[in-house]
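Fold Annotation — chain and its backbone
Next Lines — sequence and tokenised fold

***
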Amino acid sequence: MSTDAPKVPGIPELEAQEARLTLPHFTYEDAWTLGGILVGLARERRAPVAIDIRRGAQQLFHCALPGSSADNDAWIDRKRRVVERYGESSFLVGTRFRAKGTTFEQSSRLDPDRYAAHGGSFPVAVEGAGVIGSVTVSGLPQAEDHAMVVEALERLLGDLTS
């Protein structure tokens, strides 16, 4: 695992990440590549995470690494539902509620057993199509889950546009 916790980004930085990480396309092969990038990052950091990539309702990639558990799959589902509902990263949604002096759990009126606005789920957005899916990591503190997804999407975008 990483010894340096990532800086916790604010709303403007989280919004900029989402604007910047729009992909030119997202195929089955792209999902596999993104999953491989995430598995590589997690293995090199010995991160006990589960990884999930979806396009719409279809799961395109899932991997559970040593140290993860079924609880991580439950967190993936809860964080992913936030992305599906809001069209934004689970970390951005939670950060917006905290910026208003409240929490997602207190103010969203959504069932906390089904929705979690904790970092780690990020929208998969495609140019000209908008949000078409999600990529989610669970097993680390929320800022680290989020940062791992962002790093992987940055690498994938670099590969797709080079």
Summary: Helices lie at 11-20, 28-44, 70-86, 90-99, 104-107, 142-161.
